[in-house]
Amino acid sequence: MNQNNFNQMRVNIPGLGCWLTLIAVVWLLGAVGLGWLVKSLVVLVVLMVAAPVLGFIGLRFWLQRNLVQSQCPVCGAGLTGIKGAATSCLNCGTVLQTQAEGFARATEDGTIDITAVDVTVDTKPILPDGD
Length: 131
Ligand SMILES: [Zn+2]
Hints:
The chain folds into 2 domains: about 1-65; about 65-110, Rubrerythrin, domain 2. Helix 2 packs across helix 3. It has about 130 residues and is α+β, with helices and mostly antiparallel strands. It has 3 helices and 5 strands. Bound molecules: zinc ion. Zinc ion (ZN) binds near residues 75, 89, 91 and 94.
């Protein structure tokens, strides 16, 4: 009868039983001189729990600082990019450089922009294909 009641109580509060077991194990290990083991395990567990949380917070903080939402300077489509990284417009395909205030064409750095270069053709003008 008593055994049944005890089991029922354990089922009702499994978390507490788990913690009590943990505390008992920790106390036992400490009592037999393995406190260093407990400490290193605790540090390990804290690191395991804290690392993803800190990583997530750090990532969110980093994204808030570095995520830029603006419009494509060529076609005006909404874009999301990471500051300082090159991205290409999903709508028109233009390669863009993400800056703090928005997007700029990546070709402004001195690389050759094919559409902006004045090409002199001697033989005949370039016709759009398909005709
Ligand atoms: Zn575009």
